[in-house]
Amino acid sequence: MSDASYLHDEQAPRISVASPSDYFALLKPRVMSLVVFTALAGLLLAPTPPHPLIGFASLLAIAVGAGASGALNMWYDADIDALMTRTRKRPIPAGRLDPETALAFGLVLATLSVFTLGYVANWFAAALLAFTILFYVVIYTMWLKRWTPMNIVIGGAAGALPPMVGYAAATGEINLASVVLFAIIFMWTPPHFWSLALLRSEDYARAGVPMLPNIAGEDRTRLEILVYALALAPLGVAPWLMGFASLAYGLVSIGCGIALVGLAARVFRQREGEAARLAARRMFLFSILYLFLLFLVLVVEQTAHIFALI
């Protein structure tokens, strides 16, 4: 199912009564901020950073592309969003915005973002951004999310691409450093979302979304979280080992990696009651901090390096 049930719901409004805040919510602003932040890291890794205006315009286009993906995701997922406690107050299932308007809004933003990035930066970066949007909307939202418990693993590629898009916007190509940043986010995504899935398994079951805890069981999910955390921790140190991040980054990534593995181990051990929920919640929240700190250090270091060259 997509949004079809809303088109035939007699209680659903025929005319949009949405406020500007509802359109902003369609953009998934928290996801958008993460996309911009990681794309900025990729852009700053360029040997010769672009002119500030070009860099700003490129990041704005990438942000709009991320927002378009969010809007199209909410349009297609309106039926299952209505069944989940976490998402039922979103603009479409809450009846404040009709699906056709959300679809048009997302398509316009997607087109605008791709052509803007192509015009201000280069068409390779624009093509990569278009691929990112298509992958998230078509491959992840329309296919993987509803058909396989590996939806987060494969679909995580869309969320991992922004550093490569940022680097491509600055250089017209991709390099190994941007691929490493892609790999970090790609490996980070499953333990992050599976921790949330442990907390929201009833929601996902009600909506019929085959998340790993509902298909393979919570114990298997806990094991997978630990395995991915063990793989992610050394990968997070790779930018320092490969020479495009400083010792400060290395120390931060090592410390955060140890903490991440420790929390994942606690999720693996705590399997019942409130202790299990608390462990999953701590893992979920720290995973956000983990990714933020790693990319923050990269951004600060690269910014300092650029100013030192001026």
TrEMBL record:
<dbReference type="GO" id="GO:0005886">
    <property type="term" value="C:plasma membrane"/>
</dbReference>
<dbReference type="InterPro" id="IPR030470">
    <property type="entry name" value="UbiA_prenylTrfase_CS"/>
</dbReference>
<feature type="transmembrane region" description="Helical">
    <location>
        <begin position="176"/>
        <end position="199"/>
    </location>
</feature>
<dbReference type="GO" id="GO:0048034">
    <property type="term" value="P:heme O biosynthetic process"/>
</dbReference>
<dbReference type="Pfam" id="PF01040">
    <property type="entry name" value="UbiA"/>
</dbReference>
<keyword id="KW-0472">Membrane</keyword>
<comment type="similarity">
    <text>Belongs to the UbiA prenyltransferase family. Protoheme IX farnesyltransferase subfamily.</text>
</comment>
<dbReference type="InterPro" id="IPR000537">
    <property type="entry name" value="UbiA_prenyltransferase"/>
</dbReference>
<feature type="transmembrane region" description="Helical">
    <location>
        <begin position="31"/>
        <end position="47"/>
    </location>
</feature>
<keyword id="KW-1003">Cell membrane</keyword>
<keyword id="KW-0808">Transferase</keyword>
<comment type="function">
    <text>Converts heme B (protoheme IX) to heme O by substitution of the vinyl group on carbon 2 of heme B porphyrin ring with a hydroxyethyl farnesyl side group.</text>
</comment>
<feature type="transmembrane region" description="Helical">
    <location>
        <begin position="150"/>
        <end position="170"/>
    </location>
</feature>
<protein>
    <recommendedName>
        <fullName>Protoheme IX farnesyltransferase</fullName>
        <ecNumber>2.5.1.141</ecNumber>
    </recommendedName>
</protein>
<dbReference type="InterPro" id="IPR044878">
    <property type="entry name" value="UbiA_sf"/>
</dbReference>
<feature type="transmembrane region" description="Helical">
    <location>
        <begin position="97"/>
        <end position="117"/>
    </location>
</feature>
<comment type="pathway">
    <text>Porphyrin-containing compound metabolism; heme O biosynthesis; heme O from protoheme: step 1/1.</text>
</comment>
<dbReference type="GO" id="GO:0008495">
    <property type="term" value="F:protoheme IX farnesyltransferase activity"/>
</dbReference>
<dbReference type="InterPro" id="IPR006369">
    <property type="entry name" value="Protohaem_IX_farnesylTrfase"/>
</dbReference>
<keyword id="KW-1133">Transmembrane helix</keyword>
<keyword id="KW-0812">Transmembrane</keyword>
<feature type="transmembrane region" description="Helical">
    <location>
        <begin position="248"/>
        <end position="268"/>
    </location>
</feature>
<feature type="transmembrane region" description="Helical">
    <location>
        <begin position="123"/>
        <end position="143"/>
    </location>
</feature>
<keyword id="KW-0350">Heme biosynthesis</keyword>
<feature type="transmembrane region" description="Helical">
    <location>
        <begin position="53"/>
        <end position="76"/>
    </location>
</feature>
<feature type="transmembrane region" description="Helical">
    <location>
        <begin position="280"/>
        <end position="300"/>
    </location>
</feature>
